């Protein structure tokens, strides 16, 4: 008795997949964009840790908080902190 080969189903290649296009967000300070530069804000030197002064793009010396790094995504938290600094500057 001869051995029979098992039937093989149609071996069609899987359908081609198409990669979606990824577009970089614009460069700027809006949520979802890429930060064009570093952003820092000085902290109160008396030790309270409260942010003081304007947003600057180079480390101001002393104690400071880095809000965002150049090339990083601007998140809602970053935008909120930048807006809070702008509001504090307007009050001064």
Give the topology:
Blueprint: E1 39-43, E2 51-56, E3 64-68, H1 76-91
Antiparallel strand pairs: 1-2, 1-3
The fraction of residues in strands falls at 15-25%
Radius of gyration: 27 Å
* Helical proportion, percent range: 10-25%
Total number of strands: 3
Major sheet: order of its strands? 2-1-3
Short description, anyone?
The chain is an alpha+beta fold and 92 residues long. It has one helix at residues 76-91; strands at 39-43, 51-56, 64-68.
Give a structural overview.
- The chain is of the alpha+beta class.
- It is built from one helix and three strands.
- 17% of the residues lie in helices and 17% in strands.
- It has a three-stranded antiparallel β-sheet.
Give structural attributes.
three-stranded antiparallel sheet; 92 residues; alpha+beta; 17% helix
